[in-house]
Amino acid sequence: MLRHACFAVPGLLGFWLLSIALDPFANLQLAQIAYTAIAVAGLTVLSGLSGQISLGHGAFVAVGAYTAALLLENAEWSLAPVLVVVTAGTALVGTLVGVAAARLRGPYLAGATLALAVGLPSLADYHGLRDLLGGANGLIVSPPVPPLSLGETFPLERWQSWICGICLVVALFLLANLSRSRLGRDMRLVREDEDAAALSGVHVARTQILAFCVSAGCAGLAGGLFAIVSNLAAPGAFTLALSLSLLTAAVLGGLGSLAGAVYGAVIVTLLPNWSTDLAQQADLPRAVYANIPLVLYGLVLILVILAFPGGIQSGVRRIGRLLRRNRKN
């Protein structure tokens, strides 16, 4: 814990300094990177650490966003308890999904989570839940007001990025300790060989369920932060594309790497904006530049896999080893 705390404190300081140097729009992007990285880090634990495939994490993000919207607007809770309840509540949903997922393997598990990603957000437009969840238009969430101690002119976007940044650092700190714990070792053993894990005394099903619980809790926290930053929880924000982009970010950064989750979140957050700006500057038709981000996703994914099969983090480690070797020589 002391080692990880030595990384967490500079991480908080660096995030604070970066947010001060950025304009309001860039702070919004920073907040988006932070909550996306939380969801990707949870997926990294599930897929990279325990070896389970999930194509439906967008559904857990939706659960977190709607729960936060209901508690903030209807129950009028304060922000900190809402984020705690959102994380715990979505973790409970993930536990229920994990019980079913523990019986599935490979493409069957991927198909089940895919169905979850497609079906769960559409419940908001179900007749019996339309009044509660706002239907296709969703729920409006009031933005968190910065404390008066920061000044009356303190930018809202910077305050939102601070909230997301603190949650990101805390989540990474807890997940890093989890990966070094006995549960983390059990997850890695289950990933490598379930039969060997069972013979070693590891409860395979329980370990897989706990992995789903932790991963869903991270996705729920990301969903709550999404609702706070975007001021909206609507089914259109939690399409299948969201689940696929989270998995893409995990693969790009490196499955099993928490640092890689941050790298992947940066790419999937900034790449669509950059590609759209470039397409607009080139005066391309809207039907063309609307699909450019998907094409770039594929190209970047192919290039990263070809250059660094283990993801960006593996490439960073390889470069670091080469630099240390050259320095010794």
TrEMBL record:
Annotated membrane topology: Multi-pass membrane protein
GO cellular component: plasma membrane
InterPro entries: ABC_transp_permease (IPR001851), LivM-like (IPR043428)
Transmembrane stretches, start-end: 31-48, 55-72, 78-101, 108-124, 159-178, 209-234, 246-271, 292-312
Keyword terms, alphabetized: Cell membrane, Membrane, Transmembrane, Transmembrane helix
Example GO molecular function: branched-chain amino acid transmembrane transporter activity
Localization of this protein: Cell membrane
UniProt cross-references to Pfam families, sorted A to Z: BPD_transp_2
Name of the molecule in the record: Inner-membrane translocator
Gene that specifies this protein: livM
